[in-house]
Amino acid sequence: MTRIQVAIIGAGPAGLFLGHLLHRQGIAVTVLERRSRAHVEGRVRAGVLEQGTVDLLHALGLDQRLRHEGLVHEGTKLSIDGEIFHIDFRGLTGGATVTVYGQQELTRDLYDAAAAHGLPIVFEVEDVHLDDIESAHPTVSYRKDGTTRHLACDVIAGCDGFQGVSRKAIPAVAQKTFERAYDVGWLGILADVPPVDPELIYCRHADGFALASMRSPTRSRYYLQCAVDECVDAWPDDRFWDELCRRLGPQMADRVTRGPIFERSVVPLRSFVTEPMRHGRLFLAGDAAHIVPPTGAKGLNLAASDVMILARALVHFFKTGSESGLDGYSAQALARVWKAERFSWWFTGLTHRLPNMDAFARKMQSAELSYIRSSRAAQTTLAENYVGLPLDR
Ligand code: APR
Ligand code: PHB
Question: Which ligand is nearest to the CA of 73?
Answer without folding.
Answer: 2
